Amino acid sequence: MTELHPIARLPDDWRAWVAARGERAFRAGAIFRWIHARGVTDPARMTDLSLALRGALSADGLGPTAAVGVVRQSADGTRKLVVTLGDGAAVESVLIPGVTGKHKFVDDADAAAADDEDDEAEEAGAVRVSQCISTQVGCAMGCAFCASGVAGLKRHLGPEEIVGQVLLAKQLLRPGEQLRNVVLMGMGEPLHNYDATARALRLMTHPEGVGLSSRRVTVSTSGLVPEIARLGADVGGHIGLAVSLHATDDETRSRLMPINRRYPIATLLAALRAYPLPKRRRITIEYTLVSGRNDSPAEAKKLARLLEGLPVKVNLIPMNPISASTLGPPDRARVAGFQRVLTDAGYSCFVRKRRGDDVAAACGQLALEGAAPKVRVDRS
Ligand code: SAH
Ligand code: SF4
């Protein structure tokens, strides 16, 4: 990786940085906390640091790497943020408020991250917010039903830009809202940008920073087998894993997801079996239902058989239509029928709710709209 942006530095990196400048070691933690716990990236606002140190931080390039261009609020409370990066490129991130209280979650973004047990004390009256973030501008994987895939890869995000979306979102939380879950299900394939993603995961789960619990952070992947193993080795399975399967035979999957030609279904499922999942945790299997392509009752049965013995829950996603493709979702009855087969086979199976449709905020369908972002807050 090229030289780390200051926002991408972990406390150990800051310790080396302050030592090189003859500063006392505890300053390292103070700088990290300013950035990651308080969300302050302007050195001028780090008022308990000396002027000389603030000057050194500025000279080193510390400053925001991203700004929120447009916030669109949906009638259901979902907020889509268009995040403008330093070079003018834009990615999208979605904030999804859940419901108050224990053991209740309203959709897949929560369900993907929250597991069965919730042993943390819940702040009374808090509204849990889930955030969906992007890891690349566009995506190289070329899935047929996906706006990012059709756009192709423009560039990778740096770790500072990935965690930067979380820092920005925290500034936009309303009183009583708590950021609880982060899912890497926005634009891009997180494991194709492995190093930046892994560092961003370490940054956002560091207890002195944003402090997210690692089991409430979920990486969604189209199935890059070597990187699934690498992630398992690096984080010991503690970060949630969601895998986009979308088909039960290689021919169909390759047609929908070209990556299947490199890592076919059997290879992918073997990687999931080998993933060092902690006890009681489950992998989320994402299955985007595309009318006439992968949505038959026979395929539901085949999916149930394929997943036998794997610690999984299944998340069905009726495809959101995109302008670049004629593919579309099945009707409700077919979705319900597919779900019933899996439920009857004993799987925990949710249908992803279409939240934020009116602001095109469907997670994983973050279109590159092309318009130059303006600072604007839309409240519908
Ligand atoms: N690249 C990763 C994560 C981002 S996509 C992955 O593919 O898993 C997150 C999820 O949204 C994936 O399951 C993806 O298949 C799904 N998705 C993408 N476009 C979609 C669309 N138009 N309708 C429904 N789901 C879509
Ligand atoms: Fe990339 Fe995921 Fe879209 Fe496929 S579904 S093109 S992997 S973002």
Write the layout of secondary structure elements.
Elements: H1 11-20, H2 26-36, H3 51-59, E1 66-73, E2 79-85, E3 90-100, H4 108-113, E4 127-132, E5 136-137, H5 147-151, E6 155-156, H6 159-172, E7 177-184, H7 194-205, E8 217-221, H8 225-235, E9 240-244, H9 250-256, H10 265-274, E10 283-289, H11 297-306, E11 312-318, H12 332-344, E12 349-351, E13 376-379
Helix pairs in contact: 1-2, 6-7, 8-10, 11-12
Iron/sulfur cluster is lined by residues 139, 141-143, 146, 148-149, 188-189, 222, 244.
Main traits of this protein?
single chain; 12 helices; TIM Barrel; disordered C terminus; elongated; DNA polymerase, domain 1; binds S-adenosyl-L-homocysteine; 13 strands; two-stranded antiparallel sheet; binds iron/sulfur cluster; 380 residues
CATH class of the largest domain: Alpha Beta
Work out the oligomeric state of the chains in this entry: single chain
Order of helices and strands: HHHEEEHEEHEHEHEHEHHEHEHEE
Q: What percent of the residues sit in helical stretches (DSSP H or I)?
A: 25-40%
With strands numbered from the N-terminus, the spatial order across the biggest sheet is: 12-11-10-9-8-7-4-3-2-1-13
Number of domains: 2
Helix count from the secondary structure assignment = 12
Q: What is the first-to-last residue Cα distance?
A: 42 Å
Strand count, sense and barrel status of the largest sheet are:
11 strands, mixed
What structural category do the secondary elements indicate? alpha/beta
Number of strands: 13
* Coarse shape: elongated
The CATH homologous superfamily name of the largest domain equals Aldolase class I
The stretches of 5 or more residues where confidence is low (pLDDT under 50) are 101-121, 367-380
Write down the overall mean pLDDT.
88
CATH topology of the largest domain: TIM Barrel
Tell me what portion of residues adopts beta-strand conformation.
15-25%
In CATH terms, what is the architecture of the largest domain? Alpha-Beta Barrel
